[in-house]
Amino acid sequence: xxxxxxAWLTEAAQAADRQGAGDLLRVVLIVMILGCILTAWFLxxxxxxx
Length: 50
What we know:
Blueprint: H1 7-19, H2 22-44
Keywords: Membrane, Transmembrane, Transmembrane helix
Transmembrane segments: 24-44
C-alpha cells in the first residue's frame, strides 16, 4: 500500500462503516467542546483587569 496523506481519513470512514457512528461522534463532540473552551478562554482573557 502506498502512502497517501488522506489515507487516515479513508480508513476512518471505513472503520465508521464497520463500527457505526459512535466513536466518530464521540471524537467530534470532544473536539467541539475543547474548541468552545479554548475560544471562550481566548475571548474572556481580554476582559481581565490589570
